[in-house]
Design goal:
Four copies of one chain form a homotetramer.
Chain A lengths: L1 H10 L11 E6 L17 H17 L3 E6 L9 H6 L26 E5 L10 H8 L3 E7 L1 H15 L2 E10 L3 H15 L1 E3 L1 H10 L1
Parallel strand pairs in A: 1-2, 1-4, 2-3, 4-5, 5-6
Chain lengths: 207, 207, 207, 207
């Protein structure tokens, strides 16, 4: 898609925004529903899980704030509103289901904030923006699942709420490569930066 | 993408949500920046404009509420926050620029609400959700520009805020077919319905 | 305050808004922190509790949606942001504290939504507005604690989000009569209706 | 109200939050509707206006970001939703009315952001929070009209969105002393700091 890249650049998309001095890490919905082959939401993201565990470790070492999101609904799905009606697979995420648990190696540590969300964006209907703002965060390292769903929605909202969204490619995944790549393209051109995990590492080291 | 369709359906995506009894029309950013070949944002969407004019006419006849969005920034772009830094082309939309004007045939009529927004989503930082709610609207017919930017962000937010998003395909456009189709796919599977203008017409007639 | 009433009326405040046809009940923070004399937040609202239990019973009989809010923070209070720094008494509401439990007779029933909030308004950083909207609610019967804190903030937000706020006087309380009355005055003049529990009963019967 | 003060302090309200290093000024609704004795909203706040002009001058000298809010509705008041129905006096603020203009000496300068709002809170349905966040602001000096309406609602939201609200007493006013004082009391105990203009001056000098 070389010529698509060029077309976007000439049109004035894709300006590069520099990460700030006060980042936080946001790990989106890395829960067992996407990791267990028994679940219809299984996404085949074992490698991305391993990289997310690495990234989490580096962020803990760097001492930056860490946020974990997960999804949980009441038994009838009333809390999921129109989203729950649109995506029948969300019934896998009723409160108490083992599919709601965090992936192995991604369990929240003490002092890390868990955001229980009902919608695609980690910001929508949650206290994420207020917490980031009260902590003075300016940049959000983002990873998790899935690129075309909650990662994209959260990256767009990060930008909207005034934070610089930096998606870490290797630690972000989806059930199919095509929506994955299409959404990374959109994010990189209009909403934030998409970087490799080595660049994330260098950035953390530079703080 | 037959097999991608099947994969999503089997996984429990793409449930069909029925439109409600109290729709409104939301026309997103159909402004001259995208219609004037002199502007870098020009998207070649003349046919989509014609269809949007048709759709607006039908909605007026049906007597449903109509919302128009446009984008306007202060000269320094402070109001555009991180978005303005990310997309240099937004400098075309500084208040007072002729590029901010609505496309021909899409000028707001008396009694129609104009939402001046700063970010991709028509809901973000605007009184759209409050107005829809106070009017008892339950469904949002959505058209406009661009599919991979403000239309997608607004459709996701419509769902999140509790409205049924119905994107009208022929009246929605983008500068390139690939992001256009990729985003209609994501919307149709996870966030709302994508319908043809003839179906929109039948729906309006059924009210 | 007869002459204050008159001054406000002549100035064009206090227009009476009629309740709609699709109400929900919102019970705000009726938790043990305010009910247990051992806790510094104890507010002496035993009579209001009894009336809230009555109101809840009537709403269940009428079959309208019921929402309960409570407050819970992480051990460090990071989730409470600036609010937690401003009000040291919020340390009583760290997750796991018995003070977080609902008052006797106000335990949520199956199918009723529990909103765990971090801030004064029941709408702020929660999925309340989205759920109300997706259910087609137009009116919010409000009761709970405390008038000058979370009840006022929630009533103002109900109005802002497009819902008609109806505060039920006898089921709403505060630790001191003066802020209680001052805030009911403000609400009744600018943000919503303040009615007696008998009027609430008649309204529910009329649905 | 000495004993009320004591009661609140002993209960754990009124913790003092220190202003941060990156403040902005928010001047709320200082428009002619409240300044012209012909308008029913006239509030008799000439002295407060003079002090707001002073405060604005000091903030400009200190070089901090300045935000001005005003209110404007469409002719039918649809944009005002339930608020417009509740407060008939808002009809004075239809777009184009001379009552919408800023008070003398408070006209926005180039580079200052104007927030056109529809609801009590300066944050609700506006891009204020996003702009503050993208600028790295941590503290909001607040003044304007009226204490029991838009100032209180904005101070509560400032706290909720993660900013330290500092209301400057002499530059803030209302049509009656009783709601004015009652709301300053609530703000000072639960939502923010209320300081004198001399303290504001010292704070600005200390930056």
């Amino acid at each position: 898609m070389v010529e698509l890249d060029q077309d976007y650049s000439q049109a004035g998309f894709g300006g590069s925004i520099q990460p700030g001095a006060r980042p936080a890490l946001l790990i989106i919905d890395f829960v067992r529903a996407y990791l267990d082959p028994e679940c219809s939401l299984y996404a085949g993201v074992e490698e991305e899980l391993a990289q997310a565990v690495n990234l989490l470790g580096e962020c803990r070492e760097a001492g930056i704030p860490v946020f974990h999101t997960c999804v949980e609904y009441d038994a009838a799905g009333v809390e999921g509103g129109v989203f729950y009606r649109k995506v029948p697979a969300l019934a896998n995420l009723v409160k108490g289901s083992p599919y709601c648990a965090f992936g192995e190696g991604l369990e929240p540590a003490e002092g890390e904030v868990v955001i229980v969300k009902k919608y695609p964006s980690a910001f929508f209907g949650t206290h994420l923006a207020a917490t980031l703002s009260s902590l003075g965060v300016d940049t959000l390292l983002i990873c998790g699942l899935t690129t075309s769903g909650c990662v994209r929605a959260s990256a767009v909202d990060a930008l909207q709420y005034g934070y610089i969204p930096i998606v870490v490619r290797e630690a972000t995944g989806d059930r199919d490569e095509r929506p994955h790549e299409a959404n990374l393209f959109d994010i990189s051109k209009k909403f934030g930066e998409v970087i490799g995990i080595d660049d994330a590492r260098r950035y953390l080291a530079s703080l």
